[in-house]
Each structure stands twice: as structure tokens, then as C-alpha cells.
Amino acid sequence: MITRNNLSGHDISFVDSHLHLDLLVMEACESVGRLARIGCLPVSWAFARDISSSSDLEKYLRTRPRFFKEIRKDFLPCFYLAGVHPRNIPPDLEARHVRGLVSPCLDDPLCLGIGEIGLETGSGREEEIFRAQLEMAEEAAQRGKVMGIHTPRKQKARVTTQILSILKDFAPWKDSMVVDHCTPETIGGVLSSGFWAGITVSPPKSSLEDVKNILQDHSSMSGKIMLNTDSGDSLHEDLYRISVSVDLTDPAKRSLTRDNVCRFFGIKLGA
User: Fold this and answer.
1) In 3-state terms, what secondary structure has residue 91?
2) What CATH number should be reported for the domain whose range is 14-265?
3) Residue 192 pLDDT exceeds 70
4) To pair with 109 at 20 to 30 A between CA atoms, which of 3, 80, 168, 249?
5) Which among 128, 107, 106 is positioned nearest to 117, based on CA atoms?
6) Helix axes 124-134, 156-167, angle to 10 degrees
7) pLDDT tens across 64-74, in order?
């Protein structure tokens, strides 16, 4: 049995700290085999399609433990996060019901924490649901779980600033929070605020050159940076290419694609 602390017998070359494995299974099932062949350990964050009611959201979250148990048994090692994505907030969801939806997943050893949560437009409605999930930060940290926080493509600087302002109220748990989809423009504020930072390397988001520039500008904080692909409809191979690239030193590649991710999520590779 593979556990969070025992992945022996599997050749893990790198960890994708944020993708959507359930969407890959639906849209590009062959990608799951590809992940296994290239030695990728995926951490899948929550995002669903066709969420129009709280009952849709509840059904989606309720099926996650079984789904990832089957993927792990039949295809490859994997972990997941569970949460209410800002683009998955149904109109009938009340903030007081958020804990009841998300908390049961935290009992699953394959669930490493709460995510993908955050803001997309920065509306008051999004902030209400975001704060309801952040209120679980102490419980999550006490259980060895983390929180994965989304920042949007549009108006990224403004919304990231808004997110960091909200997170000030939850500063005691910043060591268990990663603010993701950072860019050269936003990562400085995230790191200087004491949070972990995720960079999404894929054609629509950040490039290897962006990563190199970030490392140059924030070398002293490189131990709190992790990479991912945010793959969903299709598999982006940018992270794999970085893991075998000669453009970064071996220590830098190990840090960004394996060691930092494992330290943040509490994953032990090997026996």
C-alpha cells in the first residue's frame, strides 16, 4: 500500500504541485499513463464543471476520495486538495455550510488540504466564501493539512493584493499556505508576506524564462517556490521539460520540481 509517507517502488522524477487529474481523465485519459511514464507525482486541486447548485458541489466533493483511491490503485500515485474554487460558487451556497462540505474530505489520507480556493474577480461574494474556507486554516494545520490559493489571470496584480490583504487575518498559518499562479509581477509580494509561492509553467501562463528571472530576483527565497502545470483539458509538459532541462542547475531543478513541493505538502519520496 502506498501511503503519504511511503512511495517506495515508484520512480518519481518530479511533482506537479497543481493540476486537475479528474479533468484529465475525462478529457485526455491517455495523459494519466503519460504521467506515470515520465515519473510525475500529481497533486490535484479541486475545480469542477457544471456546478449550478450546492447539491452539485456536494456531490462533486463527496466523490473525490473514491476517485483518487481508484486512480492511485489502478494508474499512479497521486494526492488531492478539496475546496470551493471561486469559479465554482453556486448561487445557493451559504458561507455557514462551507465547512460541512469541505471538512469530510480532510479525513481522507490522500487529501492533503483545502484548495483550490481564492478570488477570481474579487467580488464580495467570492470573498465571503474564501473567508469561510480560510476559517478552517487552524483546523487544517493541526491535522497536517495545507491550503492552496488561486490567483486569476485577469487583473492579477489587483486581485493578488486583495488576497494578501485578506490573508493578513490568517497570518499564523501562512507556513501552510501556498499562493499559486504567481508571475514575476506578483511573486515578490507573496514571498515577502511569508507565504509559499506557486508558479504555473504552461503556454498561457509562465515560461522557463519567467522562472529564471524570478530565481534571479528572489534567490534567497527560492526554497519556498514550487512549480506546476495547472493541466486540465490537456496535459502541459512544460514542467517535465524543466525537470530535464540543462538551463537550470540540478540543485535548482530538484528544489523547484521535487524538494520544495514535498516539504510543503509533507510528502516523503522513497522508503
Assistant:
1) coil
2) 3.20.20.140
3) yes
4) 168
5) 128
6) 40
7) 999 999 999 87
Q: Under a CB-based contact definition with an 8 Å cutoff, are residues 134 and 149 in contact? A: no
Domain residue extents for the chain: 14-265
Strands 111-118 and 79-82 turn out to be parallel
* Cα–Cα distance list, 53 to 29, 63, 64, 88, 91 (Å): 27, 16, 17, 9, 7
Q: Residue 24's closest CA among 35, 13, 39, 14?
A: 35
pTM for the full model?
0.95
Confidence of residue 3 (pLDDT cuts 50, 70, 90): very low
Measure Cα distances from 138 to 84, 134, 141, 144, 177 in Å.
18, 8, 5, 10, 11
Q: pLDDT tens for residues 7-45?
A: 544 689 999 999 999 999 999 888 999 999 999 999 999
Cβ atoms 81, 44 nearer than 8 A? yes
Cell of 154: 485577469
22: its cell numbers: 479528474
- CB count in 10 Å sphere of residue 164: 18
- At 201, which amino acid appears? V
β-sheet with 40-44: strand ranges across: 14-19, 40-44, 79-82, 111-118, 146-150, 177-179, 196-200, 225-228
Are 198 and 16 in contact by the 8 Å Cβ rule? The answer is no
CA distances in angstroms from 12 to 42, 163, 262, listed in the order given: 10, 33, 11
Name the nearest CA neighbour of 60 among 20, 31, 28, 118: 20
Alpha-carbon distance of 41 to 222, in angstroms, equals: 21
